[in-house]
Amino acid sequence: MSTQKALAYLDGHREDFVGRLIDFLRIPSVSTLPEHQADIVRAAEWCARLLTNAGLEARVVPTEMHPAVVGRYRADPAAPTLMLYGHYDVQPAGDESLWNSPPFEPSARNGAIYARGASDDKGQVLANLLGLECWLKSAGRLPINIVVLVEGEEEIGSPSFGGFLKAHGAELACDDVLVSDSSQYKEGMPAITYSTRGLVYKEIELTGASRDLHSGVYGGVAPNPANILCQLVASMKDPSGRVAIPGFYDGVRPLEAWERQNLESLPYDERAMQEMLGVLRLEGELGYGPLERVWARPTLDVNGIVGGFTGPGSATIIPSRAMAKVSMRLVPDQDPTAVSAAFDQFVASFLEGHCRYTIRDKASCAAYLAPVEGAGIQAAKGAVKAAWGVEPVLVREGGTLPILPTLKQGLGADSILIGYGLPDCPVHGPNEFFHIEHFLAGIGTAVQFFEQYGRLAGDETRSAR
Questions:
Q1: How many CA atoms lie within 13 A of 374 on its CB side?
Q2: For residues 158 and 94, is the Cβ–Cβ distance under 8 A?
Q3: Which of 101, 180, 217, 399 is paired with 139 by a 20 to 30 Å CA distance?
Q4: What's the confidence (pLDDT) of residue 19?
């Protein structure tokens, strides 16, 4: 009965909710640019007011960088506690000439709202927060305890997040976390993400002579860092696409039978993907399908390589320096520290006696895997089906969300990822959008989820006792 009241409140406030999304999107809360510091604060205060008006205790909390918004709703000490996580910061607009409308002047057209942050993550996090309002303004109470954490540093790697969790761990304690910062599998196929890949990111700089050399005078005797670097990165994979670093695959967890069956059941058009990417063929580790390669297998890629003369014309030199950036995506049970050490040892063995080098660590994060039989994902499946009218699919994500293992380590809480946007929305690019009906369906999903999570997680709690 309370769920129906909350859904009726949603139905009566559709235009109001869309208007609030537009107001939120007007705030250029770009976390990476210092000139937007006042906008960062304004966005945080906007979120705190929304929560307070909905009936929660909420405040803006300073961090080492950008403020976080923390909200609380206490239903019953015996009830499960759910955290709603999201971020209010956004990427820079980039080249505004590529936008069909100004990035911070939201434009509604073709059933969608176009603006920076529309899908990543303002529209999605707002949907979950408005789900709280629907319950509290209609039923008067929620069936679960709620913690809200909306941060302002996600787009710059959440540098303050780990320290913030340690400082406020007691206040943020929860059983599970609802995160909406992903997407549906495709139009008409809503998805629940249960795993993300980890990351180890390195920078390698090779140094030869103390200065650039004349290639005619010294070619054939002087070590060429650019040549050596190319040989090094080429040696990191064998012809089958398998990473050749000893120990790289230690701990890789193979897919379970149900996961493989699930992958095979998902529609995937390799030719369409090839055409969309504009490439001659899809590549990857032999023996694995494309979805398994991007979701459940570790990879190594050169992200950038530079050295020597790259300007117009010609300059016949042997460069004194060359540099490459290399990222490795990891899967569950791989140890980022061990992979990092294996990479360093591989580079050291290859370069020994050739030239001087420096390896710089840029990022490290473990993969994340949620228990699919837990109350969180089971409640999510029921909520999505109720709100969207179809069964959701369970998917993995090839990218990395460092906050997931951080939340697991810091709070012991698993995360449930329900995406409301579409995978073809150009997040981080021009003309980012969020379909209005998907935004409203997201609010409905949150409304349904709170009831189903309270029932299923409550059953788990009682059984544990």
A1: 15
A2: no
A3: 180
A4: 98
Domain positions in the chain are 2-196+367-464, 198-259+293-365
Q: Would you call 384 helix, strand, or coil by DSSP? A: helix
Query: What CATH number was assigned to the domain covering residues 2-196+367-464?
Result: 3.40.630.10
- Strands 81-87, 145-151: pairing is parallel
What length is written for the chain?
A: 465
Q: How far is CA 67 from CA 45, 62, 309, 427, in A?
A: 9, 4, 44, 23
CA angle 51-35-364, nearest 5°?
Answer: 75
Residue that the structure tokens 């069909």 belong to: 100
Residue 242 DSSP class: -
Q: Around 459, how many Cα atoms within 13 Å sit in the side-chain half-sphere? A: 10
Reduced to 3 states (helix: H, G, I; strand: E, B; else coil), residue 32 is coil
SS3 175: coil
* Cβ–Cβ under 8 Å, residues 82 and 145: yes
User: What pLDDT digit, counting tens, does each position of 366-387 carry?
Assistant: 999 999 999 999 999 999 999 9
What is the secondary structure of 156-167 as a DSSP string? GT-TTHHHHHHH
* Nearest one of 317, 309, 355 to 207, comparing CA atoms: 355
Radius of gyration of the chain (CA): 24
The phi-psi region of residue 160 (left if phi > 0; otherwise alpha if psi is between -120 and 50; otherwise beta) is alpha
> Which element (helix H / strand E) includes 7?
helix 2-12
453 and 375 in contact (C-beta within 8 Å)? yes
Among the listed residues 330, 263, 258, the one whose alpha carbon sits nearest the alpha carbon of residue 291: 263
Pairing of strands 112-114, 107-109: antiparallel
By C-alpha distance, which of 32, 46, 220 is closest to 126?
Answer: 46
Q: Are 377 and 384 in contact (CB under 8 A)?
A: no
User: Is-above-0.85 flag for pTM?
Assistant: yes
CATH topology of domain 198-259+293-365: Alpha-Beta Plaits (3.30.70)
Looking up tokens 């495709």 gives 186
The residue type of 117 is G
Q: What tens digit of pLDDT does each residue of 422-457 get?
A: 998 999 999 999 999 999 999 999 999 999 999 998
**Selection from 50, 73, 48 nearest residue 142 by Cα:** 73
Q: Are 266 and 357 in contact (CB under 8 A)?
A: no
pLDDT band at 212 (very low <50, low <70, confident <90, very high): very high
Tracing tokens 């205060």 back to the chain, one arrives at 45
Written as one string, the DSSP assignment of 261-285 is HHHHHS---HHHHHHHHT-S-----
Peptide bond into 238 cis (omega under 30): no
Tokens of 172: 């943020």
- C-alpha 372/C-alpha 289 separation (Å) is 22
